[in-house]
Design a protein that fits this description.
alpha+beta; Pnp Oxidase, Chain A; 10 strands; about 15% helix
């Protein structure tokens, strides 16, 4: 593995572009069984006095099962040359295909969870909090994302390790 562990305070990323424009892979599971999906919603910051990343996953996604079963998950960020692989991971289910085989991404296993060798940045997160979102609490003008799909579940994870190339 060609990663170096750094303090999250050393990171100089812009989460708005990193998550919202470049996307990330949310991955959970271990060497025996894992799944990943592309996400472009989430945030990073400080919550409960800890460095935290948040992501949201719909209950109909295969990755949801892994997030529910496992304490750890990763957020992997890639260079633009992997955009096609991330698009594939966001539009195909791991129930129906081997995403690593289809995209050429190489799964790696860190501290009992999974991520990808090709990533530029990996955040290993430990679930601190998870809650189903409630549409009745969502601003009226933000409800459009839920006309055909179920509400997300929010997962807050303490960033316990940051790995960079």
């Amino acid at each position: 593995m060609s990663f170096k562990e750094v303090s999250v305070k050393e990171l100089t990323i812009n989460p708005f572009s990193k998550i919202g424009e470049q996307w990330m892979l949310v991955t959970s599971g271990d060497e025996g069984k894992w799944n990943t999906m592309t996400a472009s919603w989430g945030f990073m910051g400080v919550m409960w006095g800890r460095n935290v990343a948040e992501t949201v996953i719909r209950p109909n996604r295969y990755t949801y099962e892994f997030m529910e079963k496992n304490e750890l998950f990763t957020l992997s960020f890639f260079g633009s040359e992997y955009r096609k692989a991330l698009a594939f991971c966001g539009s195909h289910s791991g129930r129906d295909c081997d995403k690593a085989k289809e995209t050429g991404l190489t799964p790696i296993f860190i501290d009992g969870t999974s991520a990808f060798e090709e990533a530029e940045l990996i955040l290993v997160c430990r679930k601190l909090y998870a809650q189903d979102m409630d549409i009745s609490l969502l601003a009226e003008d933000a409800r459009g994302a839920y006309e055909k799909e179920p509400m997300h579940k929010a997962y807050y994870g303490e960033i316990i390790k940051a790995l960079v190339k």
